[in-house]
Amino acid sequence: MTRCIAFQGELGAYSHQACHDTYPDMEAIPCRTFEDAIATVRSGKADLAMLPVENSTFGRVADIHHLLPESGLHIISEAFVRVHINLLALPGVKLDQITHAMSHTVLLGQCRDFLAENDIHRVTGADTAGSARHIAELQDPTQAALASELAGELYGLEVLAHHIEDQGNNTTRFLVMSPETDYSRRGDHGMITSFVFQVRNIPAALYKAMGGFATNGINMTKLESYMVNGSFTATQFYADIDGHPEDPAVQRALEELEFFTSRMEILGVYPADFQRG
Question: Sorted alphabetically, which PANTHER family does this protein's record hold (predicted)?
């Protein structure tokens, strides 16, 4: 029986690319929203979910940190996908025929130099894969899409120009979510522990909570805050640290953290991706 992985977006989206690159033998299931992707896994229709959490150019993905603690799923892996943007058009079309290019507004903004050089006007689409599908259906040789090569393959478009993005390091980090936990030590680049916590309403609580990681020599690679249920007084933090909860130093740091928090929940323990750098 074929295993399945759910993602948010249409076939050919960069989230689909992440599924394709990381789990080439799994069937990718497109979902309308992040919540739908999570629900698809919880219902048993998919084995895993591939969720984007942050982009090197645009920061964290909106709302995703709110969804992770309530998802009922656990992080078992991470994946990094280099966002290569390509100009896609109908078969046989030449670059000098293109007058307009459609894509998500973010991608359009990342290809300003190329579009200006070739006098191509920008057209805002709902998303990247949807824009590729629309161009394929439109059958207008003057119209193109900015999307992944995978989208071109799926919708019968040809790549007129490869990797036209202005910045050469645009990368999206994804988390792979599973209904089951996996705390086994694996991988060749160390382990990552991700967790959320709320500090107690006492002076210098966050400072004191972080002290345990400093005194135990634990590297915290990410710490982000966000409001809970629209409250200005209840702030939740998302954190990534190097190490495994069973490491003595990590164990001591987490025990000290719990003393200053009203809630602490481990979201996942997983191998660091080799592209983490």
Answer: PREPHENATE DEHYDRATASE P PROTEIN, PREPHENATE DEHYDRATASE-RELATED
Q: Which residues contact residue 2 at a Cβ distance below 8 angstroms, ignoring those fewer than 6 apart?
A: 26, 27
Six token digits for residue 266: 């481990």
- Contact call for residues 264 and 196 (beta carbons, < 8 A): yes
The residue among 161, 108, 149 whose CA lies nearest residue 16 is 149
Which residues are the active-site residues?
Answer: 172, 174
Q: What does the pLDDT look like over 154-179, one tens digit per residue?
A: 999 999 999 999 988 889 999 999 99
**pLDDT at residue 232, as a whole number:** 62
CA triplet 125, 129, 131: central angle to 5 degrees? 30
What is the tens place of the pLDDT at every residue in 82-134?
A: 999 999 999 999 999 999 999 998 889 999 999 999 999 999 998 999 999 99
Angle among Cα 174, 277, 227 to the nearest 5 degrees reads: 45
Q: Which residue has the tokens 């069973």?
A: 246
* Contact indicator for 196, 71 with CB cutoff of 8 Å: no
Give all domains of the chain, ordered by start, each with its CATH number.
4-82+170-178 (3.40.190.10), 86-161 (3.40.190.10), 191-271 (3.30.70.260)
Give the Cα separation of 37 and 16 in Å (integer). 12
Instruction: Please tell me the distance from the alpha carbon of residue 207 to that of residue 167, in angstroms, as a whole number.
Output: 36
pLDDT band at 60 (very low <50, low <70, confident <90, very high): confident
Confidence category of residue 59, pLDDT binned at 50, 70, 90: confident
* Pick from 57, 85, 93: nearest CA to 147: 85
Q: What φ, ψ does residue 177 adopt, rounded to 5°?
A: -110, 140
